Structures are given as C-alpha cells and as structure tokens.
Amino acid sequence: MIGALAASFDQLTDAAILRVLAKSLAITLLLTAGLAVLASYGASALFDHWVDTAPQDSTYQLAEGVLGALTAIAIFVFGFRLIAIPVISFFADDVVAAVEARHYPGAAMQARPVTLALSLRLALASVGRLLLFNLIALPCYIVLAVTGVGTVLLFGLVNALLLGRDLGEMVAVRHLDPAARASWLRATRLQRLILGGIATGLFLIPLINLIAPVIGAAMATHLFHARRERG
User: Fold this and answer.
1) For residues 220 and 195, is the Cβ–Cβ distance under 8 A?
2) Alpha carbons 34 and 13: distance in angstroms, whole number
3) CA distance 24 to 32
4) Distance CA 107, CA 160 (A)
5) In angstroms, rounded to a whole number, what is the distance separating the alpha carbons of residues 29 and 213?
6) According to the model, what pLDDT value does residue 5 have?
7) CA proximity to 164, closest of 197, 134, 127
8) DSSP H or E segment with residue 115
9) How many helices and strands in the chain, by DSSP H and E?
10) What DSSP string runs through 35-62?
11) Measured between alpha carbons, how far is residue 178 from residues 99, 181, 188 in Å?
12) φ and ψ at residue 153, rounded to 5 degrees
C-alpha cells in the first residue's frame, strides 16, 4: 500500500491527472463554499429564532457572527469529503485511465468506458451511504464524545470503510460486471479498509486534503490491479 501511495503522488505531474485535479477541485470547492454559506445563514437564522427576545446589542451580533463563522468552517472542513468523493466519481475514469495507461497498459486496453449514468449512480450511492451510516453511528458518536478519542476513532473507522468502498468501486466498474464486482468487494474488505484509512487521513491534512480524492482514486487503481496480477 505504501508503494501505491508513493506511485500515486509520483503521477500527480501527469497532464491528465492535473486536468482532473483542476476540474474536480474547482467544482468541489465551489459546492463546499456554497454549502458553508447556506449553513452559516441557517445557523444565524436559528440563533435569531431561539434568542429573539434578547436585546440586539453588539454582544448579540458578535455571538451571531461567531456562530455563523464556526458553522461555515465546520461545514467546509467536514463537508469537503462529502462533496469531493461524489465529484471525483464523475472524473474517476480519467484518473484510473491515466494510471492504467502508465502502469497497466494491458488492462487499460480491455477496460470498458464508464457512462455518465453509471457515474451519477455511483456518486449518489456514495452520498447515500455516507449519510446513512454516519446517521446510524450518530448515537455512538454522542456516547463516546465524553472520551473525545473514542468518537474520533469510530468516525475514522466508519468513514474509512465507506471511502474504501467508494474508491475501490470506481476502478472495479471499468473491468468487472456487477456480479464479479460484488465478489471483488467482498474479497477485498481488509485492503479497502486500509486504503480508506489512508485516504481518510489525507483528508485531515491541510492542503493535502485538496488532492486526497485524486490520490485515493490512483491508489485504488494500484490496489485493484496488484491483486488481479497476484491472481
């Protein structure tokens, strides 16, 4: 897995990868910023509703502004992954194709193109799983919040599982039919968990998180083909 990570960073200078990175990053940042602004306004509106009997003095305005700013920052930090993976799903075929062309040319020639409809389905499924599983885990997050570390570890585990699934499937759809893809997903749970854990860690590093979706897709390509080559 370390070799896949190193090879993925090494290919960042490829023109095809840079094009995908520029497009996906611009769209992700735009959508995340829009979501952060909407959430900030929403938090301010709720604040006004909850404390509408308080005097509208400078302290009130400061508290409202701080709440809005913190909400926007939280959405930007935690919402980036929510938006980045579905966005990269639309461009994943270009990332995977570039990695395959350089490292696995034989497989690249046999790959099937991913349609827009399939990319959309994968993106919506990714968002749905992310929201559903984190909602299910929410009570545990709250219970473990008293320990601090427990919540972080569980959040990381849940999202590593989800991210490993998303990234692996981006590659598998180019080479496997639905039945074979389901079998591959079952057989690679541990490897994809490690992949998802590394990618989740990259999302937590400032600046590196901006390229994390592309790095994750490239790593998933190496994981997929390395396993196939081993038989």
Assistant:
1) yes
2) 29
3) 12
4) 27
5) 13
6) 84
7) 197
8) none
9) 9, 0
10) HHHHHHHHHHHHHHHHTTTS--SHHHHH
11) 23, 5, 15
12) -65, -45
Residue for token digits 């046999």?
Answer: 110
pLDDT band at residue 61 using 50, 70 and 90 as cut-offs: low
Residues in Cβ contact with 48 at an 8 Å cutoff, skipping those fewer than 6 apart? 64
Q: Which two tokens stand for residue 102?
A: 């350089």
Q: Is the pLDDT of residue 139 over 70?
A: yes
Residue 134 has a CB neighbour count (10 Å cut-off) of 16
Selection from 209, 223, 226 nearest residue 85 by Cα: 209
Q: What average pLDDT score do residues 223-229 get?
A: 81
| CB neighbour list of residue 91: distance below 8 Å, 6 or more residues apart | 20, 23, 24
Check residue 142 and give its pLDDT: 80
Q: Which own/partner pairs from 69-73 qualify as long-range (CB within 8 Å, at least 24 positions apart)?
A: 69/40, 71/36, 71/39, 71/40, 71/42, 71/43, 72/36, 72/37, 72/39, 72/40, 73/36
Query: For 114-131, how does the pLDDT look when each residue is reduced to its tens digit (9 = 90+)?
Result: 788 888 888 888 888 888
In angstroms, the CA 138 to CA 184 distance is 29
Quick check: 115 and 123 in contact, CB under 8 A? Answer: no
CA distance 109 to 100: 9
